[in-house]
Amino acid sequence: MSTLDAKTRGRTSPGRLRALDAYLCRFEPGLLTRTDGPWAHGVFVDVGFGEHPWTTLESAEAFRSLHPELSVVGVELDAARAQAAHVHAGPRTHFRQGGFELPLTADEPARLVRAMNVLRQGPVERVPEVHHTLGRFLLPSGLLVEGSADPEGAVLTAHLLRRPADSADLPPTREALLFHTTFRHGFAPWQFRDWLPRDLRRRVRPGEPMHAFFESWNQVWQHARDTGYTLPADAFRESVTRLATRVSGVVVDSWLLDSGYLVWRPDGGVPP
């Protein structure tokens, strides 16, 4: 256990991260299916799967619809949880005890590392170092996904961090911020605030870029509702469409909007 690691409650629910799986399958298929050179052995790593490995197994099923031979490694800091998950292991599905210093072998480079709901506690100052540590295990242009979701998976946000293609020494680039809602609890932009990645939650205050982002989103959402878009899904779609005219980097894509996703990909990366 490194000084970066901290135990979590480890409670999760089936389906909590299915929306994230769906996004990655649609927008990162090359990352999941690439098999040239070292990518032939590239694995998906799920960090901190908790008491039960439901999310790891669900992701394995989703990603193998694109890459049937994909190897999956579930990592859990708690040794008892890791041992209990072995009942679900198979030739291409592995469960190991470990933390942010991932327990991968030399011939298991990571194409995708997911670390959801594992940084919600602890000092915010450690987040960049965790990102850098996890990023070292990625193949060039590999992806680190780190963020939070509510227990049901109704509200989710995540950093999308890309390892630079030309340097293993640099930290992963803060490429985009992903938001998703199922509308189970209705919709308002401020619902995402408490589920932002750990390093952004304290940045939602006047004068900060995240506060300006949410203020703009809330304004266009209110205007959408005032002009007849009263259903949550309709208000969401219209608000994101209008937000894209105010905030650079907001991705307008029909599948994303219809499915409750917002992707913010600002020039220069997501501001700290």
UniProtKB/TrEMBL annotation:
<dbReference type="InterPro" id="IPR029063">
    <property type="entry name" value="SAM-dependent_MTases_sf"/>
</dbReference>
<protein>
    <recommendedName>
        <fullName>Methylase</fullName>
    </recommendedName>
</protein>
